[in-house]
UniProtKB/TrEMBL annotation, chain A:
Phylogenetic classification of the source organism: Bacteria, Pseudomonadati, Pseudomonadota, Alphaproteobacteria, Acetobacterales
Transmembrane segments: 27-56, 91-111, 123-146, 166-189, 221-242, 275-297
Domain ABC transmembrane type-1: 85-295
Record's subcellular location: Cell membrane
Organism: Roseicella frigidaeris
CDD domains noted in UniProt: TM_PBP2
Keywords: Cell membrane, Membrane, Transmembrane, Transmembrane helix, Transport
The protein's name in its UniProt record: ABC transporter permease
Membrane protein topology class: Multi-pass membrane protein
InterPro entries named in the record: MetI-like, MetI-like_sf
Family, per entry: Belongs to the binding-protein-dependent transport system permease family. CysTW subfamily.
One BP annotation, GO: transmembrane transport
Amino acid sequence: MEAVGQATAFTAPARARRRPRLTSEAISWLQVGPLAFILIVFFALPTVLFLVVSFFDYDRTGIYPAFMLDNYREVLTTPATLRIYVSSLKFAFIVWAITLLLGFSIAHFLVFHVRSAAVRTVLFLLCAIPFWTSGIIRTIAWIPFLGRNGAFNQALIDLHLIDQPLEFLLFSPFAVCVTYVHLFTLLMIGPIANSLAKIDPALLEAARDAGASRWRTMVDVVIPLSKTGIALGSILVFTQVMGDFFVVKQMSGGQSASIVSALATEIQAMQYPPAAASAMLLVLFVAIMVAGMMRVVDVRKELVR
Amino acid sequence: MIGGGARSRDPREKRPWTFYALATLMGVFLLFLYGPMFVIYLLSFQGPNGGVTFPMVGVSTVWFEDILKPGQMANIPVAFGRSILLAAIVSTITVLVSVAAGLGFRRRFRGSGILFYLAVASLVMPSLLVGFGIGLGFQLFGWKADLFSSALAAQLTWTLPFGLFAMFAVFNRFNRAYEEAATDLGANAWQRLRWVTLPILLPGILGVAMGAFTLSYDEYARTTLVAGNRNTLPLEIYALISSSTSPTLFAIGTLTTTVSFLVIGATLAFVFRLQRRRALARHG
């Protein structure tokens, strides 16, 4: 089915030459058609579906069409909901701050300090390659590293910096943050580097010739011109942390749950309506945050030119 | 990858102190990025009497042999095959659909805004919820969830927006003068696409293919609720984490990462060769 849709998309412009009646708008629609089809059928409709199911009634044997707000009332009045949202937001904020600082510094280094294009490409690839490998493996890779007898504790003991292994390293909020930063910093580096690379070097020279210090140039020229990248990176990191299913479960040692892992427990218990209600709550929450960040910059104008 | 912002700078200019500070940060970051991964590669060669942490008790490949032995790990080789096949399908569809869509987005059309935000939403949607929605839909219609239907669809909702945005970046750097020249020389739209546009875009398209392949190959959260009864490799690994306490898990990690590295390496080598050949052709 995909292949057929594709063939039309590719030959459409050719036909347009022979039959000029096919407008350029129609050609565009043929070209984006397969994408629109897949996103509507497998993303938009399922989302509408769990919106509908979130109002359904349920018992131990099945779910029943209804329109009731009980599922939402339950989700919103359970103290556990507030607790995991607060804990997830705390993680999201800490990780956002660290990845932003780290990602911006590294992007700045790559774009403005590295002079050879080849070195820049190699360094950027070194940052990007782990992102294309398994997130699960990268998460569990921290276990032998941070553990009580792990490589990090061993190294500190060998250096006589400590005499007892540090206990807070693994299965703790610390481990969760470290893993998030490890997994998601590239999501900051990429968009920010892309924004920085678009800055005309003449602007920086002009700022310097006008007597601006490096700091002033940074604050008044570089940061404002890279805010699209900053916003995009922030959206990616924030949504990844809020939607995390695996890291908190694996690295917090059972001290905290994530919003999604709590939800997964409900899904596994086949309690679809309340799970759908918590899912809607999370979707709304993420959507509002993302919409807020998108107001800062016109991401679309920046990406599609 | 990234266009140089500093091209016009004099190469003999003295480095500011921030260069050294940031270079150090870069080095520390790379250590942070690769250090833990190297620890598990090392530990996967742990001796037969060793455990999941240091010290190494000899060096062996018993944990790798463990994977192929019948028993607890029996599903790993089969799941690996499935993952590769699924990733190849996802990658092919992603390339075809996102290249076409990238071409379409070069003109404004009615609904382009809605489609763009639909792609953004699909990208930022908490992964597990995508699987949840598709799973509910399949249940509603009484279809059985399967790796090559529901799981494939769930993965596409993640690789397609990624492919689309990558194509935006590719088209941003594309010089339309080449297309105009082709038209002026009498090429029809199909010839222009086949002999001018696509060859110029080829390195970017290969990047999308590789990205989609590796994203699918390692995908967990979108797939887990809709994979049916045949698991992919990440699902098998996830199931092993809670039950296995031997370095076999690390051996599997080493192997699957090696496969990722091979795919990435082959693609990059191909792209670099392509670019070098072009540079040579340009300079005579």
